[in-house]
Amino acid sequence: MILNYIWIAFFIIAFVVGLVKLIFLGDAKVFPDMVNATFDMSKTGFEIALFLTGILSLWMGLLKIGENAGIIKVFSKLFGPFFQKLLPEVPKDHPVFGFILMNFSANLLNLDNAATPMGLKAMTELQTLNPKKDTASNAQIMFMIINSGGLTLIPMTVMAYRAQGGAADPSDIFLPILLATSASTFVGVLIVSLIQKINLFNRVILAYGGGFFLLIAGFIYYLMQLSQEEIGVVSSIVSNLILFSIIISFILLAVIKKINVYDSFIEGAKDGFGVAVTIIPYIVAILVGIGVFRASGALNILEQGFAYVFGALGMNTDWIPALPTALMKPLSGSGARGLMLETMSTHGADSFVGKVVSAIQGSTDTTLYGIAVYFGAVNISRTRYVAAVGLFGDFIGLVTAILLSYLFFH
Questions:
Q1: CB 175 within 8 A of CB 408
Q2: I want to staple 362 with a disulfide (CB 3.0 to 4.6 A). Which of 14, 142, 158, 261 is the partner?
Q3: What is residue 285's three-state secondary structure?
């Protein structure tokens, strides 16, 4: 429901701002710009879906190989007890736990293209257990919040963009991003657990959570012994080695069990194509709303307003040029990425703003975009409180990223 109001607000606010600019400022280009934005963003939305078609077909094909080979059941038995406590509505040893784990692992390694099809498969499996097909279940909400928190151990994508932008030390935002995404994910899970009356002090949750915390702490300690250049190399090797090892394990297990690997891949790839077609309307809707809001100048006005407020309070406003990315991040990953690259190009990748905007880009996932894609893929229109909780988690992550940027870089 909140997504409906936000989408309507994009157009109404853009229209009002456009009228003011036309009548009082004589800006004759504002409405042509907004109309052009609808066409441009529609095209962009289709191009994103077209790109996702190949990625989804690839990974859902690989997932089908793993599923037919039985590896999903292996993951479910190993990590099912933890997710079972967070998702008590899901039956014990259900195969969805395997998909959730792989999605979580891909997000942890910042492997965006791999995480999406795994997440879509998990959401589809959860939908089979959903008694009200048009309304998000408790399990789907918890999964979505875990996903939108964007917990990232190795922010490879952001580091790659920083390297492309000429940063002397592309991995210097590693720790701020890890801490920011941890804060975002923890707050989101905590709120949903309170709403759904889930006991986070259960010994199973504490055991798995404590083990995960020790693993992260140990990895951070190891990386702190390395130079910044070595951190980038190790992160790249670890993330890609794990990813390709997953692919090989699927194929080898299928061979051992005498599964037709190629036919399994084709079967899953067909499903990926179908999912990509299904989500096109949802992607276009979100991007068009954002495009109109930006073209009207409303986003720029919002930025200037924040700068005035923070300045009047006597607070440092050096981070304000990164605000558009912070505002765009929950709405559109591609939009936030474009704003981040634009900011780094204008101010420099190694400038304070360049580092702030990098930390913001990696601090959380694209909540509203994710809701549109994941729930749209299973035709859920009533998302309940997931958007409100997800956006609050995003807020915590973004604020944490900004504060840590001042601590580390200012």
A1: yes
A2: 158
A3: helix
DSSP 154-194: --HHHHHHHHHTT-S-GGGGHHHHHHHHHHHHHHHHHHHHH
- The pLDDT of residue 70 is 82
| Residue environment code for 393-406, b if the CB has 16+ CB neighbours within 10 A, otherwise e | bbebbbbbbbbbbe
Domain boundaries, the chain: 2-409
pLDDT of 170: 81
Structure tokens at 30: 């504002």
Q: Which amino acid is at 376?
A: G
What is d(CA 119, CA 340) in angstroms, rounded to the nearest whole number?
A: 25
Greater confidence (131 vs 152) lies with 131
Rounded Cα distance between 120 and 109, Å, is 18
Identify which of 62, 41, 167, 158 has the alpha carbon closest to the alpha carbon of residue 111: 158
Choose among 161, 216, 135: nearest CA to 333: 161
Q: Calculate mean pLDDT across residues 53-66.
A: 81
* 347 close to 321: Cβ distance less than 8 angstroms: yes
Which secondary-structure segment (H or E) carries 268?
A: helix 261-295
